[in-house]
Design a protein that fits this description.
With about 210 residues, this protein is an alpha+beta fold. The protein folds into 2 domains: about 5-115, Sandwich (Jelly Rolls), CATH 2.60.120.10; about 120-200, Winged helix-like DNA-binding domain superfamily/Winged helix DNA-binding domain (Arc Repressor Mutant, subunit A, Orthogonal Bundle). It is built from 6 helices and 8 strands, in the order E-E-E-E-E-H-H-H-E-H-H-E-E-H. The strands form 2 sheets. Strands 1, 2, 3, 4 and 5 form a 5-stranded antiparallel β-sheet that branches. A hairpin with a 2-residue loop joins strand 7 and strand 8. The protein is elongated and about 60 Å long. GO terms for molecular function: DNA binding. This is Crp/Fnr family transcriptional regulator. InterPro entries: cNMP-bd_dom_sf, RmlC-like_jellyroll, WH_DNA-bd_sf. It comes from Vibrio sinensis.
C-alpha cells in the first residue's frame, strides 16, 4: 500500500496530543499495551509482537484511549493512517476485508488478556511470561529466555513489585524459571503451562 509509513519506536505513535488515528503493523519487536486504574491493581494487558496488527478495532470509533506502552524489545512498525485507508476503501471495498483480518487476531489477544486479569497473580505472571516467550526469537538448544525486567512485568501484570518478586521466587523454587538481572529463563515450560489450566474453565487456549 502506498499509504504506509514506517515508525520507530512505537512510543512515537502513542502520543495522545497528536490525535493520529491509524492501523499499525508490528514488523519487529515486542510491546505490551496496558490499561488499568489507580483504584485497583487489576491490569488489562495485551502483549504483541512481529506480525501483530493494532488499531483496526478502533479506527472508526470516536474514542481516545490512554494506555501504558512497554517496549520489551525495540519495535519497528508500519503505520497506515485512517484518512489514506478511507481513500483506498472508496476505490477498493476489499480494504474492509483487510481491516477485518487485522481485527480478528487482536480481538483474541485482548479477550485472553481480559480473562487472565480475572485470576490470581500466579496465573497472570505465568501467562505474561509465556506470551512474551512465544513472541521472542529463541536460541536453539538454550532455555527459553524472556527479556523483561521485574519493573516491566509489574506494569504488565498490575502486580506490585514485592508481590511479583514473591511469585517469581516461588516459581524459581519450583525449578520452573531462573531469574537473572533484566531477564528470566523458562526452565520447565510444561509445568508453567499446567498452571494456566485454570483458564480453561473460561476460554480454551489453542
Amino acid at each position: 500500500m502506498n499509504c504506509a509509513i514506517r515508525i520507530n519506536p512505537l512510543q512515537d505513535s502513542s502520543n495522545s496530543k497528536k490525535k493520529a488515528v491509524s492501523v499499525m503493523y508490528i514488523k519487529k519487536g515486542i510491546a505490551c499495551i496496558a490499561f488499568g486504574c489507580d483504584s485497583a491493581n487489576t491490569m488489562n494487558s495485551g502483549i504483541f509482537g512481529e506480525g501483530s496488527w493494532l488499531g483496526s478495532l478502533m479506527i472508526h470509533q470516536p474514542l481516545s484511549i490512554h494506555a501504558t506502552i512497554e517496549e520489551l524489545e525495540p519495535v519497528e512498525a508500519i503505520c497506515f493512517p485512517k484518512d489514506k485507508i478511507d481513500i483506498l476503501a472508496k476505490q477498493d471495498p476489499m480494504i474492509y476485508k483487510w481491516l477485518y483480518h487485522a481485527t480478528v487476531k487482536t480481538q483474541q489477544q485482548w479477550l485472553l488478556a481480559q480473562v487472565t486479569s480475572l485470576h490470581d497473580r500466579h496465573t497472570r505472571v505465568v501467562f505474561s511470561l509465556l506470551e512474551i516467550a512465544r513472541l521472542t526469537k529463541q536460541v536453539q538448544g538454550s532455555y527459553t529466555k524472556v527479556n523483561a525486567s521485574q519493573k516491566q512485568l509489574s506494569t504488565i501484570t498490575g502486580i506490585s513489585r514485592p508481590r511479583l518478586n514473591e511469585t517469581l521466587k516461588m516459581l524459581e523454587l519450583c525449578n520452573e524459571i531462573s531469574i537473572e538481572r533484566g531477564s528470566i529463563h523458562l526452565i520447565d515450560i510444561e509445568k508453567l503451562r499446567i498452571r494456566l489450566n485454570v483458564l480453561n474453565t473460561t476460554i480454551e487456549i489453542g
